[in-house]
Write a structure and sequence with these properties.
- It contains 2 helices and 2 strands, in the order H-E-H-E.
- Helix 1 crosses helix 2.
- The N and C termini lie far apart (21 Å).
- The chain has one domain.
- The chain is mostly helical.
- The protein is globular.
Length: 45
């Protein structure tokens, strides 16, 4: 699932090394967003 979600930021201009902020509580969606950002090359802050 994270791989499918990871393609979305990459299609919208996320490049390797870009910082990514995730504003979610501790929930399953946070984990998916976290791994998707990492797989797309982003740095989660």
């Amino acid at each position: 699932m994270s791989a499918r979600v990871a393609s979305i930021p990459a299609e919208n201009g996320l490049k390797k090394g870009n910082r990514v902020g995730i504003l979610l509580p501790n929930c399953p969606q946070f984990v998916i967003a976290f791994w998707a950002a990492l797989m797309a090359g982003g740095i989660v802050v």
